[in-house]
């Protein structure tokens, strides 16, 4: 694994070398929000950002994803398959969002049902992360096995340091890329030491939420707790928390048929917060009210995920807290769960 | 705590203690600056949670239908009160169970506009001092002209206090404002191409989370047209054409019903401004039917009533 330095003004060169092989997705500011979009040059990116509003899961799991399209000519039906995926670099992804790809991978690769769209894209994607120098107050990555400079789920991690970036690879893919960049300079030991100290300082500034890994045990005994009613009282039942969540992955599949006989099958985001999500063809709906739906979201991430994959289904990015229209705070839900009287029963 | 807030708390406490209501619906401080959360109070000792300031942008009338069995007191700025009244007129609520606690509103802050201005810096504290909005973060402090960040809808609002209230707290403000729909006139002077560009720009960002619909006091259909799937009526993707259809039809569905609270735009996680659409519909309803929603318990909404003198110039007459 390599450790190098790259001066800020060489980032555009770095990107243009990558572009020979990869499509580049990077953080772009649009109408005041950061979104991960395909870029043609480094100038389009804003690298001094906190984090994107829509998580970069949208690159691998787009909001609208055509599975295939078709054309009909008389009796003949022609199915048009998707083109093979391009090799992609997601540049500037935050370590929390990179961790979400690892979680999503568990879901899309579960058992005998493999999701070709997601998995092919993931296989063709290189993640070049940038460490968080300014974590938000709403961030809690260090409580869910992550960290502002966690390199576990990226191929390369950059850390801004004075007029340079400290650049370190953590996978073979990352090594191969760094070896191609002949304009990187060596990282001095003294600098590396200073950088590591700075990283530790930033990391320790993030507030720890205790015992999140044990939450699933508490939740085992409080499915019927009145707490869920309290949590759902002010909830609007919209999709903001799940659509902007980097680990939420539920989808719907719809067919679009045009009068000329052409059409497509398309996958779109869906969420457990909508009543239609669980409505069965029979007319039965196992989750008819928002109490059940609000509970589902917490159980999925903090009980079912730990049980199915031995992982917490949350990366602590804080987007659900930041963007909830009624200012619901999942951290408050955690403390309510820990204080709930029914947690010791059963 | 402002004088208004202490009066709100006092009133809420009395209503709960005297058993006149089971539940007070109001606003409390949210988890972040510029955020207010809906607050449900049943215990008189909890009334100190109640707040009212520039961040209270939700329309609380939205929550009333979820508590049909309770006697409710609702802290109502003008548009919340209008929401309640309109829902009563549409037979969605039993007015006997609801106490409208009218309060005067100074308008709400457009959060998206503030965030856009501050950019990628975390806002840790927001204060209003006279005509300034003070926004603080870790390494910055900005003083912005408050008026530039007040919701456009609040600027044309002439019902700062609810037109009908059971109890009035604070000084009810009657506005002499003449709303000439200047915002609409100026938008309509644009070319069709420019108008299209504007709506494309806004609606392109829609992620179909339906926060706008869920926050709307008058969007209460048990099955929304967009959720009709046997058969499918409209596309549900976040492609621009599907987004256009959804927002245009939703605007038409709230014609003569929208109470101009702007909650749909305030809650939008993508900061999409839907107000122009709703304002245009409001203007048409006002001009055609001389009707404003939620200002009287007697007048039926124009789309829910038939009058022989209703204009029907669009009908084709046969010779």
How would you characterize this protein structure?
- Chain A is an alpha+beta fold.
- Chain A folds into two domains: 3-205, no CATH class; 212-344, no CATH class.
- Helices cover 32% and strands 22% of the residues of chain A.
- Chain A is built from twelve helices and twelve strands.
- Chain A has helices at residues 11-19, 57-60, 95-108, 116-123, 172-180, 189-205, 215-220, 227-232, 240-243, 290-309, 319-323, 330-339, and strands at 3-7, 23-30, 33-39, 64-73, 76-81, 88-93, 125-130, 156-161, 164-169, 185-186, 251-257, 263-269.
- In chain A, the strands form two sheets. Chain A has an eight-stranded mixed beta sheet with strand order 3-2-6-7-8-9-1-10. Chain A has a four-stranded antiparallel beta sheet with strand order 5-4-12-11, with no helix packed on it.
- In chain A, a hairpin with a 2-residue loop joins strand 4 and strand 5.
- The radius of gyration of chain A is 22 Å and the shape is globular.
- In chain A, 42% of the residues are buried.
- The model of chain A has no long low-confidence stretch (mean pLDDT 95).
- Chain B has 319 residues and is α/β, with parallel strands linked by helices.
- Chain B folds into two domains: 3-110 and 150-302, no CATH class; 111-149, no CATH class.
- Helices cover 31% and strands 13% of the residues of chain B.
- Chain B has ten helices and nine strands.
- In chain B, the strands form two sheets. In chain B, strands 1, 2, 3, 4, 5 and 9 form a six-stranded mixed beta sheet that branches. In chain B, strands 6-7-8 form a three-stranded antiparallel beta sheet, with no helix packed on it.
- In chain B, a hairpin with a 6-residue loop joins strand 1 (23-29) and strand 2.
- The radius of gyration of chain B is 20 Å and the shape is globular.
- The mean pLDDT of chain B is 94.
- The A-B interface holds A 29, 31-34, 46, 48-50, 53-54, 63-64, 134, 136-138, 233-234, 236-240, 243-244, 252, 254, 256, 266, 268-269, 271, 274, 276, 321-323, 325-329, 331-332 and B 30-32, 35-40, 58, 62-63, 112, 115-116, 119-122, 124, 138, 201, 205, 207-211, 213-215, 227, 229, 232, 235-239, 266-271.
